[in-house]
Amino acid sequence: MSEALTTAPEGRPFDLPLVFKRHVFICAQQRPPMHPRGSCAASGAMPLIERLSAKIQALQDPELAVTVTGCLGFCQAGPVVVVYPEGIWYAPRTVEDIDEICVSHLCEGEPVERLIFVPKV
Hints:
The chain has 3 helices and 4 strands.
């Protein structure tokens, strides 16, 4: 690897892994009320984001990461979560759904089939 990929601009090594075992992205997009696309925040994303962040932090696994994002493009399915490197999309509705994703997928490597949706591209 090149020096630029392994060190910060000051020349010190990055203190985070360059590649996570699993990286979870969850949408927090908030659009105005009655917007035709809707938004994940208006569909109840905030409690799910809080739970997901707390669960991943509690796992204390440096190879797991969560990133809260803007629009992921599938507003009508929202709130939406995508887990990489697998590229599996979820449409969780409850904090219990988030718990199940964390235990089954993030810890055990088994996707939660009942929560998966396949985006139309």
